[in-house]
Amino acid sequence: MAKRVRRGKLEPLEKCPTGISGLDEITEGGLPRGRPTLVCGSAGSGKTLLGMEFLIRGITSFNEPGVFMAFEESAQELAENVASLGFDVPGLIARKKLLIDHVRIERSEIEETGEYDLEGLFVRLGAAVDEVGAKRVVLDTVEALFGGLPNEAILRAELRRLFRWLKTRGLTAVITGETGERTLTRYGIEEYISDCVIFLDHRVNNQIATRRLRVVKYRGSKHGTNEYPTLIDEDGLSVLPITSLGLSYPVSRDRVSTGVPRLDAMLGGKGYYRGSTVLLSGSAGTGKSSLAATFADSICRSGKRIIYLSFEESADQIIRNMQSIGVNLKQWREKGNLVFNTVRPTLQGLEMHLAMIRKMVKAFKPHAIVMDPISNLISVSDRIDTKAMLMRLIDFLKNQGITAVFTSLTTGGLELEQTEEGVSSLMDTWLLVKMVERNGERNRLLYVLKSRGMSHSNQVREFRLTDDGIVLTDVYLGGGEVLTGSARMLQEMQDRVQTEVAAADAARRKRELDIEKADLRADLDALKARLANIEAEQNLAQRGETTRIETLGQRRRSLSRSRQAD
Amino acid sequence: MTPAKRQTHQAKPPKWDLRLYVAGQTARSVTAFANLKRICEEHLPGQYRIQVIDLLKQPQLARGDQILALPTLVRKLPEPVRKIIGDLSNVEKVLVGLDLRARDAANEEKAG
Questions:
Q1: pLDDT-based confidence at A378, cuts 50/70/90?
Q2: A-chain residue closest to B63, CA distance
Q3: Residue pairs between chains A and B whose CB atoms are closer than 8 Å
Q4: Does domain A13-239 have CATH number 3.40.50.280?
């Protein structure tokens, strides 16, 4: 730093990419170029591997040869140890890109007889660096010298000189050190290496080992300060940043069927979005796995591929159980559309699970994935870790456009609309399956709790597992209550009977009225007839009267005439 | 001192084959060589050979012979191979290192 200031201009620190997946992201570009970096950790924390991978990736990815000075293991042992990780150390050595120098010190063989220095080490290192044209150097574990050489004062002075020498040679160096009781390294060599310190941790929680990496300090550079889960698998070391750097995955408008037509209808008529995350939660025995299996079946039916990760049941057990509801998963496994991966969650740490899933996804290139159930992962770690792991998994799957269906068991005592992992906010679609107990039976209800970016049904459906698969039925919503199962059927039957009875009633009433109408009409006719009779009689009478009056008049007139009255 | 100079006193191969590793002609390496020669003359007259190896000229030998500290004296013969580091100014320790004196005796002397 001081040197750079003296020169009058401040150049940004040049970085030396490690090529180790994730580590360059955390350190924003790699280790400080031309400076030593201390990598410390307890035994078995992966210090040597980090160093070796730093060199090998330097050669294969950045064409920077390297020297590995081993104070603990022989070149042969080192090569064998990393051969399982796919690193061809002998090949790199043969091509003069890598040089391993095993510094062997046997205290019993050494007699100290006066003044000395470690110029031999400098000569050795210098010769090795020149031999391959090294840009990178690893000293693993230089502290072993403390055990081999009796004079600590000389050793400290020489180590200080060594780190200075590395700097003047412009070598990017990784120096490993074993963690001390109160200090970062057993002999406190962090005192001499102040540019960058990386701490590797290998801790055991609930009998499950987890590796972590933390950049303790990085002079002159920004860096991630968290503890990052780290894993060692057949591709070497990977550091997994907790979250992706941004939310910038591509999204799709395509839909995939849930495998249940009625459920598709509830989700805007088409099903899940491709590449979305779906959570199926519910208490025990609610049919979450069946829903997931039906989805898997539907994916395979459309000629696509799916990975079924089961943390509870074996593949054969799932196949057998799903056959009982008419879902034949066996055929898809045989055709290669479906791959099961059944492991106990406690088999390995969350990071290993994540790595395994990533590896499977990369190899199998599925269109969808089922994880059944994610709630079991809690048994491996705590809630925060599980959430972080799932977040990383979801980020990964979303970036690949893979539709993911997770099931989650809601244990007793928890709110239904809550998951133990606290992951619901990460999910795009959340279906809830619920048990209702009534009239001595348990029935399942399904509803869509949320579904981002689509109009979805607000209706509760009865969810039934039949011999022909999953059936969703409208629940009975009469009298202000929800009825399911036989109660619903009973109610429906009662309704039907009532309807029939009412219809019969109405018909009878109609008939009665018809009769009454007919009766009245008949009465009316009779009255009309009587009226006519009366009228006729009246007319007759009228006519008789007139005749009588006329007759009387004629008579009177004839009488008067005869009496000659006027 | 001439580096890599051979000091043979007899025609037949010497019983004691010693190598002194140094890096250039530093004061320390000169001292070491002088000390070594004196000890050999005193304790192994006529049965030794000293080979001085300058690592500045042959740096690869440092790796091959597992040299770390300088100066280092390596007893190649008689076997087993022994390593003695430092400028050889502590004669007692050199003698112990070369198995010319028993370890206990050295300790007793030291204690006395």
A1: confident
A2: A124
A3: 101
A4: no
